[in-house]
Amino acid sequence: MPTIRDVANRARVSIKTVSRVINDSPMVRESTKERVLKAMKELDYHPNALARSLVTKETRIIGLIIADVTNPYFPELIRGVEDVANDSGYNVFLCNTDENPEKELIYIKLLREKQVDGIILSGSRTSCDQLNPTLTSGIPLVFINRRVKGNKVGMVMLDNFGTAYTAVEYLVSLGHKNIGYLGGSTLGQSNMERKNGFIQAMVDRGLPYHKLIAEGHPGKKGGYNRTLELLDTNRPLSAIFAYDDMLAIGAIEACRERSLSVPEDISIIGFDDIDLAAHIAPRLTTFSVPKYEMGRVAANMLLNMLGKKEFEKEIVYIPKLTIRDSCCQVN
Amino acid sequence: MPTIRDVANRARVSIKTVSRVINDSPMVRESTKERVLKAMKELDYHPNALARSLVTKETRIIGLIIADVTNPYFPELIRGVEDVANDSGYNVFLCNTDENPEKELIYIKLLREKQVDGIILSGSRTSCDQLNPTLTSGIPLVFINRRVKGNKVGMVMLDNFGTAYTAVEYLVSLGHKNIGYLGGSTLGQSNMERKNGFIQAMVDRGLPYHKLIAEGHPGKKGGYNRTLELLDTNRPLSAIFAYDDMLAIGAIEACRERSLSVPEDISIIGFDDIDLAAHIAPRLTTFSVPKYEMGRVAANMLLNMLGKKEFEKEIVYIPKLTIRDSCCQVN
DNA sequence: CTGTTAGCGCTTTCAA
DNA sequence: TTGAAAGCGCTAACAG
User: What's the CA A54/C1' C10 distance, rounded, in angstroms?
Assistant: First the structure.
């Protein structure tokens, strides 16, 4: 690997001059510049970003911590982050935590050691205590779907409570009374908020909700298993509000397993509007979340913090009810 | 940010001793080690990986270049890479190229500057010429689904030709004679191979294939548009073999648009077996590709190269025909 | 077991 | 417009 010194020798200039053309400073005579450029090409020289970063204190790397790429919720979000990061010459580290706080902490440690300029965390599951050293370390952080107080902290939020409330309203408007909540991770703030919105809406209408809450493992499989429990241990349900679409899809399969047809026997409503939602049978009624947009906004927020520009500390999106075929009028 | 020097001062040892405990060398008295560890904790010290890498010449970062996370083919592959990388303490840079050779080249440049230890490229689209400097630079490369000769090069391949051939055989066994090929990117080697397999199989059976080949833009939309063309400009087709599942799904929509029902009027077979394939209506007959496994294998190959261990330079997977509901007997 | 010194490849004063 | 020297935070010999 050729170094800046090799280029300098070959071009018969000092290393400082080479440095100047790398960072294209205007203080270089055109002819000199060309000589240097030529030498760089001939040597297939690539400036060492490590050495540069060591002195400039910026790596142009951002960390992106998510639960699992394989969950269809994330790819678009990732793409949003990557697109704006790339436009500004940043690279992104992708980190899958499987909603495991320990893994998350390990990643945060790794990212800090690698001196990333900032971190975006989607659905962080670590406790505030564990997060605290990082929070006070001054490294810019953007949380997606988690509210955290701190100086250099941005938040891209969803109105979880309100949306859950809306879900119940919609189901009730269809005549449903026995509604179950199929929850996500108990560690997640967003699950808490959606659950509370659900409960509040039920309480406001004097509807019973206890024992209808199942929280558990994520994904289609988790949804399947939890729904089976819900179905087997509770008075006949007529509707289920699921924490996310994958859970909802698992729920649909569980209903099929118990010979209940959706939506005739039981209505199911999801959350996220992933690609699959529009393609399964029955097509899933759900709440659309602007995943790509949120990724972009989170990355922009982070970049603004890095550039010491002004920025909104918090942006809240309101998911839009997207009615398809998995819910219907009862009686 | 505290440095190794701060820790040394606080623990009243030399920086070398701190360095020893960081890399946990055994040559440190237990009591000293504890003192150092304590100082590190109190300072919330994180070793600067940049400085370390500058001298050790390894970053424990690998680059992963793909077309688009948003294409359901990739998340599992990414996860496979990430899982084995992470197990060995590596981070991965995710790079989306949209099958654009220029973007790919820019990313390669960026990755080399950041001194990544190796790069995995899935479906690389750059020409050999453009790739050459990188190939000869000695940085370990693993290609997924592209054959490239080079010293430090590994390949994780699919039997594209054979699978395409099998697809035609299957369709012919169902009685089909007018079969179209719905192709992927003309820049991609894998598209070339699948097309050739398709052509060979048709020729071997004395079946006409000309004008039935459409190659174009990727994704559902590309599949939709291309299929419309295919349908409108050719003698009645009875079957389509698509380069990938997303294209196939677009094709299904195009058929619906032309009031052709699948599989009664036209059979469609895909490639990849993405999650969606089993969920759409009709459930897609396709070839299953071990995406997660391939990601793992690619990452392991790369890690072996980095560790100077022996390794298979090339592994070939044979996709498995997965029969579902999108193809049926004709006449 | 522990410390001193040099240097990784770059940028940054400060001079020339 | 160009260059010399110092230093970013760490590891690697080599002494002690």
Answer: 8
Using an 8 Å CB-CB cutoff, list chain B residues near A130.
none
Nearest to B123 by CA among B69, B46, B191: B191
CATH of domain A61-158+290-318: 3.40.50.2300
Interatomic distance A218 CA / C12 C1' (Å): 52
Query: Considering only CA atoms, which of A18, A20, A23 is closest in space to residue A41?
Result: A18
**Cα nearest neighbour of A108 on chain B:** B46
Rounded to the nearest 5°, which phi and psi values hold at B272? 125, -40
- Measure CA to C1' and name the residue nearest C7: B55
Residues in chain A with CB shorter than 8 Å from the CB of B72 are 72, 75, 275
| Per-residue tens of pLDDT for chain A, all 331 residues | 889 999 998 999 988 899 999 888 887 888 888 899 999 999 999 999 999 999 999 999 999 999 999 999 999 999 999 999 999 999 999 999 998 999 999 999 999 999 999 999 998 999 999 999 899 888 999 999 999 998 889 999 999 999 999 999 999 999 999 999 999 888 888 999 999 999 999 999 999 876 566 677 788 899 999 999 888 887 788 999 999 999 999 999 999 999 999 999 999 999 999 999 999 989 999 999 999 999 999 999 999 999 988 889 999 999 999 999 999 998 7
Q: Is A259 exposed, middle or buried (0-12, 13-18, 19+ CB in 10 A)?
A: exposed
Whether the Cβ atoms of residue A67 and residue B58 lie closer than 8 Å to each other: no
**B264 token code pair:** 């009664």
Distance, in angstroms, between A124 CA and closest chain B CA?
19
pTM reported for the whole predicted model? 0.93
> CB–CB of B92 and A93 under 8 A?
yes
- Identify residue A60 by its one-letter amino acid code: R
Strand order in the sheet with B239-242: B213-215, B179-183, B239-242, B267-269
Rounded Cα distance between B248 and B255, Å, is 10
Query: What stretch(es) of chain A map to CATH 3.40.50.2300?
Result: 61-158+290-318, 160-289
**Which chain B residue has its CA at the smallest distance from A63's CA?**
B93
Count the residues in chain A: 331
The verdict on whether omega for the bond into residue B133 sits within 30 degrees of 0, i.e. cis, is no
Query: Looking at chain A, which residues constitute the CATH 1.10.260.40 domain(s)?
Result: 4-56
Query: Which of A49, A78, A279 is the closest to B69 by Cβ?
Result: A78
Cα separation, A247 vs A226, whole angstroms: 9
- Residue B50 CB lies within 7 Å of the nucleic strand C: no
**Of A296, A317, A318, A327, nearest to A142 (Cα)?**
A296
Report the alpha-carbon distance of residue B85 to residue B118 in Å, rounded. Answer: 11
Q: Which two tokens stand for residue A259?
A: 């010979």
In this structure, which topology does domain B160-289 adopt according to CATH? Rossmann fold (3.40.50)
Angle subtended by helix axes B30-43 and B4-11, to nearest 10: 120
Whether the CB of A37 is less than 7 Å away from nucleic strand D comes out as no
Please answer yes or no on whether A51 and B49 come within 8 Å at the CB atom.
Answer: no
